[in-house]
Specification:
Distance between the termini: 75 Å
Radius of gyration: 41 Å
Strand content: 5-15%
CATH superfamily of the largest domain: Outer membrane efflux proteins (OEP)
Strand order of the largest sheet: 1-2-3-4-5-6
Number of helices: 10
Number of domains: 2
Structural class: alpha+beta
C-alpha cells in the first residue's frame, strides 16, 4: 500500500514536472519564434541592384557628364534666342553725340542662318538753342547665300544635342554594366558562403577523423602515421576555412563599394536561388560552331546595344563635320538688306517732324587667300569620318565575338554542372566506402583523407559552376544589349 502510494506520488510528480516544463516551453517557443521574426532579413539581389543604381559611385561620373552636356546644349540653344541689348551713355563724343544717348538692339539668328535685327536709338547733338536730337530705328536682315545649300546653321546645336544623347546612352550602358558587376559580386558572396559551409562540414569530419585515429592507435588498430595524416588533414581544412572566411569578407566589401555603402556597414545577403538567374535559357541549345545559329542573336545585339548606337551616331557626326568643313572652303557671301527711318528735331517733342526713309541692299564678302587652316580642318574632318567608320566596323566584329563568347560560357557552365553533380555523387559514395573500410580495419585513413578532399573539391566545383552559369546568363543578356536594370530591380 505504501509502495503504491509512492508510485502514484512519483507519477504525479513527473506529470506536474512535465506540465511545468510545457508551460515554460510555450513562452520560450514564442520567444524563439519572435526572435526569428525580428532577425534582420537578408538582402536580395534586386534590393542590392536598387541600392547600387541609386548610390553607386560608378554612376556619378557619367551623371556629371550628362549635366555638362545639358549645359552645353542650353548654351547652343541660346545662340538662336533673342539677343536684347539696351544701352545708355551720358558721355559726350567730340565727333558724335554731345548729350545723353540711349537705345536698344534686338537680334535673332534663324535656323536658316539668317540674322534678323532691329535697332532703335536716340542721341543729342549740339548744344544750347542750336542743339537737336536724332531718333530712329533700323530693321536689318543678313543671309549667307551658301547656307541654303550647305550644312544647316544649327550644326552646333545638333552636335550639342548629340552630346546629350551620347551622355544619356553612356549612363544606360554604365547601368547595364553595373547590374552585371553587382550580380557578380552578389553571387560571389553566395559562392563563398556555400564554400564556407562546405569547409565547416569538412573541418568537422576532419576533427572526428583525428579523434578516431587517435582512439584506434591507442588500442593498436592504427599507426602513428594515421594520426599524423589525420592531424595534417585537419590543419589543412582549418587553413582552407580561414581562406574562405577571408574571401567572403573581401567579396562583401566589394559589393558594399559597388552599392555605395561604407565598408564597415553591416551586410547580410539572403542568397537568392541561382536557378532564378539563368538568363539565356531560350537560346542555350544553339550550336556555337554553326555561325548561322547565332546570327539572330548577333543581329539583336547590333540593333539594341547602346555602344553600337553611339558608334553609329559618331559616324553620322563625323560625316556631318566633314561636310561642314567642305563648305567652309567656299567664300562667305552675305546678302544684306536694311530699312532705316530717322527723325531730326530741335526738341524731343518734335523729333519725328522730319523723317526720311531709306532701303539699303548689298552684298558683303570676305575671303582669305591663305586657306591653310580651312584645309587642315577639312583634312582632319575627313580622317575623323574614316576613323569613325572603321571603329564601327570593328565594334560590330567585337559584338559578334562577345555574343559567341557569352553563349559558349553558358554551354560550358551547364556541362560543368552536369559533370560536377556526378562528381559529387561519386565522391560521396567513395567517402562512405573509405570510411567503412577504415572502420573495419581493411585500410588506413589515407583513403578517407583522399575521399574527403575529393568530395570537398567536387562540392566547391559544383557551387562555382552554378554561379558561373548564373553570371554567364547575365553576361549573354549584356552582350545582346538586353540586360535591363529594371528586369532584376523590382
Amino acid at each position: 500500500m505504501f509502495g503504491t502510494g509512492r508510485g502514484l506520488l512519483s507519477v504525479a510528480s513527473v506529470t506536474f514536472a512535465l506540465l511545468v516544463a510545457a508551460a515554460a516551453g510555450v513562452p520560450a517557443a514564442r520567444a524563439a519564434a519572435q526572435a526569428t521574426d525580428d532577425a534582420p532579413r537578408g538582402l536580395r539581389l534586386h534590393e542590392a541592384l536598387e541600392q547600387a543604381l541609386r548610390s553607386s559611385p560608378r554612376l556619378a561620373a557619367v551623371r556629371d557628364a550628362l549635366d555638362r552636356a545639358t549645359i552645353s546644349h542650353r548654351l547652343a540653344e541660346s545662340r538662336f534666342g533673342y539677343k536684347i541689348t539696351p544701352f545708355f551713355s551720358t558721355l559726350a563724343d567730340p565727333y558724335g553725340p554731345t548729350g545723353p544717348s540711349f537705345g536698344v538692339d534686338l537680334q535673332k539668328l534663324l535656323p536658316t542662318g539668317t540674322t534678323v535685327g532691329f535697332r532703335a536709338n536716340s542721341f543729342a547733338f549740339g548744344g544750347g538753342a542750336g542743339g537737336g536730337r536724332d531718333n530712329g530705328y533700323t530693321f536689318s536682315v543678313s543671309h549667307p547665300i551658301f547656307a541654303a545649300f550647305g550644312p544647316e546653321p544649327e550644326y552646333e546645336l545638333t552636335v550639342a544635342g548629340r552630346a546629350v544623347e551620347n551622355a544619356a546612352g553612356e549612363i544606360e550602358a554604365t547601368r547595364q554594366r553595373l547590374v552585371l558587376e553587382v550580380a557578380q559580386a552578389y553571387f560571389d558572396i553566395v559562392r563563398q558562403q556555400n564554400l564556407l559551409a562546405a569547409s565547416e562540414v569538412a573541418l568537422e569530419r576532419a576533427r572526428r577523423l583525428k579523434i578516431a585515429s587517435e582512439t584506434r592507435m591507442s588500442v593498436g588498430l592504427a599507426t602513428r602515421l594515421d594520426v599524423l595524416r589525420a592531424d595534417l588533414f585537419r590543419s589543412q581544412t582549418e587553413a582552407s576555412l580561414g581562406d574562405r572566411q577571408t574571401a567572403l569578407a573581401d567579396a562583401e566589401d566589394h559589393l558594399k563599394l559597388l552599392m555605395g555603402l561604407p565598408v564597415n556597414a553591416p551586410l547580410r545577403i539572403a542568397g537568392d536561388d541561382l536557378d532564378d538567374y539563368v538568363g539565356g535559357a531560350e537560346i542555350a541549345a544553339a550550336d556555337p560552331s554553326a555561325p548561322e545559329s547565332l546570327r539572330p542573336l548577333i543581329a539583336v545585339a547590333l540593333s539594341e546595344r547602346v555602344d553600337v548606337r553611339l558608334a553609329r551616331a559618331r559616324v553620322e557626326d563625323a560625316e556631318h563635320a566633314a561636310s561642314l568643313a567642305t563648305w567652309s572652303l567656299l567664300p562667305k557671301i552675305n546678302l544684306n538688306a536694311s530699312y532705316s527711318q530717322r527723325g531730326l528735331g530741335s526738341a524731343f517733342g518734335s523729333a519725328y517732324a522730319d523723317l526720311f526713309r531709306g532701303w539699303n541692299i548689298g552684298i558683303t564678302s570676305a575671303y582669305t587667300l591663305d586657306r591653310s587652316a580651312e584645309m587642315a580642318a577639312f583634312n582632319s574632318a575627313s580622317i575623323s569620318a574614316r576613323s569613325a567608320e572603321r571603329a564601327l566596323a570593328d565594334l560590330r566584329e567585337r559584338v559578334a565575338a562577345d555574343v559567341r563568347r557569352a553563349h559558349r560560357a553558358i554551354l560550358r557552365a551547364e556541362k560543368s554542372i552536369d559533370i560536377q553533380t556526378q562528381a559529387v555523387e561519386v565522391s560521396e559514395t567513395q567517402l562512405e566506402l573509405a570510411q567503412l573500410r577504415y572502420e573495419r580495419g581493411l585500410a588506413d585513413n589515407f583513403d578517407v583523407v583522399d575521399a574527403e578532399s575529393n568530395l570537398f573539391n567536387a562540392q566547391s566545383a559544383l557551387v562555382s559552376a552554378r554561379v558561373d552559369r548564373a553570371i554567364a546568363g547575365l553576361a549573354l543578356e549584356l552582350s545582346m544589349g538586353r540586360l535591363s536594370p529594371g528586369k532584376y530591380s523590382r
